[in-house]
Amino acid sequence: MAPLPPDLDAVIERAWQLTLRTDGFLGENEARFLGMLAACVPARGTIVEIGSFKGKSTVMLAFVAARYGLGPVVAIDPHTSPCNTDPGISAGSSTFEEFLASVKAAGLTEHVEIHREYSREIAKRWNRPIRLLWIDGDHTFRGAKEDFDLFTPHLVKDGVVALHDALNAFEGPIRVFVEEILRSDQFGAAGVVQSTAWGQLRPEDGKEFRELRMRIERRAQRMLPFVANGRRVQGLRKMAYKLARSRVPRAPISAEEWSALVSRGCTE
Ligand SMILES: C[S@@+](CC[C@H](N)C(=O)[O-])C[C@H]1O[C@@H](n2cnc3c(N)ncnc32)[C@H](O)[C@@H]1O
């Protein structure tokens, strides 16, 4: 297991203070977890963010990546509306200026590679290895699956894919997590922090983590009927949905615990 950076807690705390000032959709536990992933995923390659909105997760990722010399964060978002995750944004408006302002205010302009386009467009010419793939764009099943399918072929061994809003009422992230990560021996350790679901690509020994993934799968798959076909979760169904969700383990995990978990079975 690679040693953790000794100043990791302080770096994530500083990153969180900047992230906190940025408008967007990311809870504290999952933001800190994302920062930990940026620092600790034991692989080489790019950090790719699909869905930047006003830059909240971008700031967390880019601050940590900059601190540890891990290269710019590739931030992909057309910044157009309407958008299925943000129905409040009026048609024709854009989040691009606010995104630029957030990144600038955090002093991270040089540490973000901006692509103002749909993920499927950049996917056509993408050829770089990815060590952390953060999917927070189109939350429909079609959209999340498309992002997963187009970008995970570039995920390096031991790299991590994380999906936001897996435990919020969207069909895409939870279905991709259950069907493509938890049920696949291509992936090793997996889990959820707050509403962020993640899995580590382990094509050689993923089956050794099958029991761990199946334990989560048994609980997470109960959420699928509630969001099937993009259905809205309302009324009494909402209570049942919340009950199913409460059974999915989603507590924060420390960098030490996470690194020990993904190091299982590693010979190095
Ligand atoms: C939930 S927001 C992202 C939140 C952001 N990560 C944060 O921390 O606040 C979703 C964003 O995904 C973008 N989006 C939707 N479909 C997309 C696609 N196919 N490719 C890239 N971005 C997309 C939207 O424009 C929107 O800004």
How does this structure look, described?
With 268 residues, the chain is an alpha/beta fold. It has one domain (8-263): Vaccinia Virus protein VP39 (Rossmann fold), CATH 3.40.50.150. It is 42% helix and 15% strand. Strands 3-2-1-4-5-7-6 form a seven-stranded mixed β-sheet, sandwiched between helices. α1 packs across α2 (28-40), α1 packs antiparallel against α3 and α7 (171-182) packs antiparallel against α8. The N and C termini lie close together (7 Å). The mean pLDDT is 95. S-adenosylmethionine is lined by residues 24-26, 50-53, 56-57, 76-79, 83, 85-86, 95, 118-119, 136-138, 143.
Structural descriptors:
268 residues, alpha/beta, Rossmann fold, 7-stranded mixed β-sheet, 42% helix, 15% strand, globular, binds S-adenosylmethionine
